[in-house]
UniProtKB/TrEMBL annotation:
<dbReference type="InterPro" id="IPR036249">
    <property type="entry name" value="Thioredoxin-like_sf"/>
</dbReference>
<dbReference type="InterPro" id="IPR011893">
    <property type="entry name" value="Selenoprotein_Rdx-typ"/>
</dbReference>
<dbReference type="Pfam" id="PF10262">
    <property type="entry name" value="Rdx"/>
</dbReference>
<keyword id="KW-0676">Redox-active center</keyword>
<keyword id="KW-0732">Signal</keyword>
<dbReference type="InterPro" id="IPR019389">
    <property type="entry name" value="Selenoprotein_T"/>
</dbReference>
<protein>
    <recommendedName>
        <fullName>SelT-like protein</fullName>
    </recommendedName>
</protein>
<feature type="signal peptide">
    <location>
        <begin position="1"/>
        <end position="23"/>
    </location>
</feature>
Length: 236
C-alpha cells in the first residue's frame, strides 16, 4: 500500500477516534456570575465613576404581567433563565430575540443561551457518517488496490458503476453524507427553564413560544418564586 492509499484509509480512522474522544469529553463549566461580579469589583474607581449605575424603576402601573400586578420592578434579580435551543437548526436568532426581550422586561435577570444536543445514539451516528464518506471516496479512488487486499479477486459490479462517473459519485457521497449528518445533529428543541424549572418546551408543543406568551410564563414563575418559599411559607 503506497502513501496515498495509506492516507485515504488512515485519515478517516484518525478523525473517527478524535470525534469519539471529543464526544465523551466533559465540557468546561459555564462562567459563574460570581466571577463576573469579582472582576467588576476589581475595576478602578475611575471606571466606576465613568459608567453610572442603572437601577430598575419599580412601576406603579396597575397593569399585570401574567396576573402579576405592578409591572416587573426588580422581580428578575437573582433569577436565571436557561434557553436551550438547537444550534444546528438555525434557532439562535430566535433565542437571541427572546433573550433581549426577557432582559428588557425583567431587569437584573440572567439569561443563558446553550445548545440542546440530540440524543446520544444520534450524536454517535453523526460521528460515524464522515468515516463512511471518506471510506466510499477512498474506494472510488483506489478500489483496484483495495478489493484484492480484502480478498476479492474482482471488484463488485457496483464499484464499476461508481467508477464510471467518479466525480459525480464523490460529490453525491459528500452531499448526502452532510445531509445525514446535519439531520443527526439536530434536536429541534427550544426549551426554556426558569430557575431550573421548565416553563416552555418546543419538543412538547411542536411550536415556538410567542414573546408575550413567554413573558407571561416567566413573569408568573418569577412572581411565584418570589412570594412563595420552597416549604410553602410566604416570604417577607
Amino acid at each position: 500500500m503506497d502513501r496515498s492509499q495509506f492516507l485515504l484509509l488512515g485519515l478517516p480512522i484518525f478523525l473517527f477516534f478524535t470525534d469519539v474522544v471529543n464526544l465523551f469529553t466533559v465540557p468546561p463549566p459555564p462562567k459563574s456570575a460570581q466571577n463576573d461580579l469579582s472582576s467588576f469589583r476589581s475595576k478602578p474607581n475611575s471606571v466606576l465613576h465613568q459608567q453610572p449605575l442603572q437601577f430598575p424603576i419599580q412601576k406603579s402601573s396597575s397593569s399585570a404581567i401574567g396576573g402579576v400586578g405592578g409591572g416587573v420592578g426588580n422581580i428578575g434579580f437573582g433569577s436565571t433563565i436557561n434557553i436551550d435551543f438547537c444550534a444546528s437548526c438555525s434557532y439562535r436568532g430566535t433565542a437571541v430575540t427572546m433573550q433581549n426581550m426577557l432582559e428588557t422586561q425583567f431587569p437584573g435577570i440572567n439569561v443563558i443561551l446553550a445548545n440542546y444536543p440530540p440524543s446520544f445514539p444520534k450524536r454517535l451516528l453523526s460521528k460515524v457518517v464522515p468515516v463512511f464518506q471518506f471510506g466510499i471516496i477512498g474506494v472510488i479512488m483506489a478500489g483496484e488496490q483495495i478489493f484484492p487486499r480484502l480478498g476479492f479477486a474482482v471488484p463488485p459490479p457496483w464499484y464499476y458503476s461508481l467508477r464510471a462517473n467518479r466525480f459525480g459519485s464523490i460529490a453525491s457521497t459528500w452531499l448526502f453524507g452532510n445531509f445525514i449528518q446535519s439531520f443527526l445533529q439536530s434536536s429541534g428543541a427550544f426549551e426554556v427553564y426558569c430557575n431550573g424549572e421548565l416553563v416552555f418546551s418546543k419538543l412538547t408543543e411542536n411550536r415556538f413560544p410567542g414573546e408575550i406568551e413567554l413573558r407571561d410564563l416567566v413573569g408568573k414563575k418569577l412572581a411565584h418564586t418570589r412570594i412563595v418559599h420552597g416549604d410553602g411559607s410566604v416570604l417577607s
